[in-house]
Amino acid sequence: MFSPMAARAIGTSTIAFGLVSLPVKIYSAGESSRKISFNMIWKERGVRVRQQYVDPADGTVVPREEIVKGYEFAKDQYVLFTDEELEVVQAPKSDEIEIVSFVPADTVPRLFFNKAYYLGPDKGGGRAYRLLSAALSDTKRVAIAKHATRGKQYVVMIRPHEDGLLMEQLYYEDEIRSFEEVPRDDGEVNEAELQLAKQLIDQAAAESFDPAQFTDEVREKTLELIQKKVDGEEITAAPAEESKGKIIDLMAALKASIEEDASDSDSQRKPATRAGKKTGAKKSSGKKKSAGKKAASG
């Protein structure tokens, strides 16, 4: 049995809090490689094509070395920048994650969470790493810090995770859109409908979130389709499923949902042999009898 490969760091940094410097390595918390990507292929020749930049006026191909960055300040009017000019506004390269404050963990709204990264201790940082993780865990606080990387500056949150540290990249306040921008129709909550909705929630309730319950079905089907293509199989589209009848009445929809959920639960709890015995109990001959035996054996 093969042992799992050690994670590969995507960067290094130093957490600075007080006079303590903690060297860390940064790891991706998710696998971006799981994303399936396709190349653009010329169907006639089976070769990969390349993208080019062209002048929209006459279709002239523009060499990459003649392309600069520009900002549109008015319709079809641009101010141009060289790479050297843009370096002036880029965040200075820094090896530090500068902690600004420690705040109660439950005061950071989940709405601000953007990306997550694992942090691991770099050479010589083991003791300080464990210390910061334990201190944050005991105080139920998280560290809010500034992190500059690749010419940009981010606000991040460092929190304890299992026996280590996790870094959450946060949105800036002006990046969060107001919920007031979302149109919401007026409507009164009917007490009878509310009770049915709560009953539906209770029927589908679970003790905790189980991530193993879910898989990326589209990715799995895509990989299966790719393998069939590699093996030279013909691919045919499955017939589209008929959509279920739309229920307009909210009360009727809630009742139908509860009945359907209860029916699914009963069928999952009912032993398979019970149905078989019931089928085989009736005296019959020929095909019906054999069908009963088949059901009982299944």
Please explain how this structure is put together.
- The structure is a single chain.
- This protein has 298 residues and is an alpha+beta fold.
- The chain has a domain at 11-31 and 90-175: Ku70, Chain: A, Domain 2 (Beta Barrel), CATH 2.40.290.
- 29% of the residues lie in helices and 25% in strands.
- The chain contains 7 helices and 11 strands.
- It has a 7-stranded mixed beta barrel. The chain has a two-stranded antiparallel ribbon with strand order 3-4. Strands 5-6 form a two-stranded antiparallel sheet.
- Helix 3 packs parallel to helix 5 (250-269) and helix 6 (272-280) packs antiparallel against helix 7 (287-297).
- The longest helix has 20 residues, at 250-269.
List its salient traits.
alpha+beta, 7 helices, 29% helix, disordered C terminus
- Helices and strands, in N-to-C order? EEEEEEHEEHEEEHHHHH
- From the helix content, strand content and strand pairing, which structural class follows? alpha+beta
Distance between the termini: 35 Å
The helix content is 25-40%
Widest beta sheet: strand line-up: 1-2-8-11-10-9-7
CATH names the topology of the domain at 11-31 and 90-175 as: Ku70, Chain: A, Domain 2
